[in-house]
Design goal:
With 326 residues, the chain is α+β, with helices and mostly antiparallel strands. The protein is built from ten helices and eleven strands. Strands 6-5-4-3-7 form a five-stranded antiparallel beta sheet. A four-stranded antiparallel beta sheet has the order 9-10-8-11. A two-stranded antiparallel ribbon has the order 1-2. Strand 9 and strand 10 form a beta hairpin. Helix 5 runs antiparallel to helix 6. The longest helix is centred in the last third of the chain and has 19 residues. The radius of gyration is 29 Å and the shape is elongated. The N and C termini lie far apart (69 Å). The N terminus and C terminus are likely disordered.
Length: 326
């Protein structure tokens, strides 16, 4: 059996000085800024190099990178005596339309209550900004190159409520609520919290009403008071399996949502399967697809959709409303 080549044998096939320069460039691309101690540690940890260098030798390597176009200012007290790579020498080629979509998504997330998701995506955008390099023709804003201006309105209270009830769901203790039901007035409920959901009209808590043993969707704005009880959740949310069909052009252009999978496909029709604990959001989305969409199962959800459509048609024709809701 042939043994792996030792480093000394590999060195016979490469220029070790050139290798050191390229490795320093790789580390600067990865970390963007390194002082002499940090850079020497990385050089020492590389088995092909295995040693550190004095400032004069490192400066020679850095000067080689400068000569081929790398923007690395002098190491001074202004940059904490670090070697800083100001621009990615190998920018990622992205079209302006792709970058515009990425910026719009950041703006949408900035207006949502999930602060963690927004911050994670913002860090991703900062990395992307570095990867594409500076390009004024793209019309990108702010110093990072991609980050759009923060939204003007204050979302502090909204995010506070979202995070508060998200924590309740994670801790999985039952909640004693005072809930202002629009039809029944103020109610005292004992609810096992499952999930915080966002809808166009606001934030909602999905949970099990211990009194009726039914899953309920509660508007957070209608919760007047909340107190955690010492009793843990006894049940998990009931998941519903939904299969729906899409037809025509929509079938060809449809992009699967998270937790959706394709179970049938043809040139003119696809069937999509998903599992979820609360179906009203899915129902409202499927209604927007009109005649290009049909719920295949379960039968109960098909009946709810049919009744809702009949109610809409009756309202449009001036007939009495059937009273069906989603």
């Amino acid at each position: 059996m042939a043994m792996a080549s030792a480093p000394s044998e590999v060195f016979q096939n490469i220029n070790i000085s050139a290798y050191r320069v390229l490795y320093i460039l790789l580390m600067l691309v990865r970390y963007r800024s390194l002082n002499m101690v940090e850079l020497n540690r990385l050089l020492y940890e590389n088995p092909m190099i295995g040693r550190g260098y004095n400032s004069e030798t490192l400066t020679k390597y850095i000067n080689t990178l400068r000569e081929v176009g790398c923007r690395i200012p002098r190491s001074t007290n202004r940059n904490d005596y670090s070697y800083e790579l100001l621009r990615n020498p190998f920018p990622l080629a992205l079209e302006a339309k792709e970058l515009s979509v990425a910026c719009k998504l950041l703006d949408i997330l900035a207006r949502q209550p999930d602060e963690v998701l927004y911050q994670d995506y913002r860090r991703l955008m900062e990395d992307l900004s570095w990867a594409v390099g500076c390009n004024a023709s793209l019309g990108l804003e702010e110093e990072t190159g991609l980050i759009p201006a923060s939204p003007m309105r204050d979302l502090g209270l909204w995010r506070q409520r979202y995070n508060e009830f998200k924590r309740y769901c994670q801790e999985a203790f039952a909640l004693d609520l005072a809930y202002a039901d629009p039809e029944r007035g103020v109610q005292t409920l004992s609810v096992e919290p499952y999930e915080v959901l966002e809808r166009e009209t606001g934030l909602f808590l999905l949970g099990l009403d211990r009194g009726s043993q039914e899953q309920r969707l509660l508007d957070l704005d209608r919760i007047a008071s909340v107190r955690q009880s010492p009793s843990k959740n006894r049940r998990s949310p009931v998941q519903v399996t939904v299969v729906f069909a899409l037809y025509g052009r929509l079938a060809k252009s449809y992009r699967l949502y998270p937790d959706e999978r394709l179970v049938y496909s043809s040139n003119t029709e696809i069937h999509v399967k998903t599992r979820l604990a609360e179906t009203s959001g899915l129902m409202l989305r499927l209604l927007k697809y009109g005649a290009s969409c049909q719920i295949l199962s379960p039968d109960g959800l098909r009946d709810v959709m049919r009744q809702h459509i009949e109610g809409l048609l009756s309202a449009m024709s001036g007939k009495p409303d059937l009273g069906a809701t989603v």
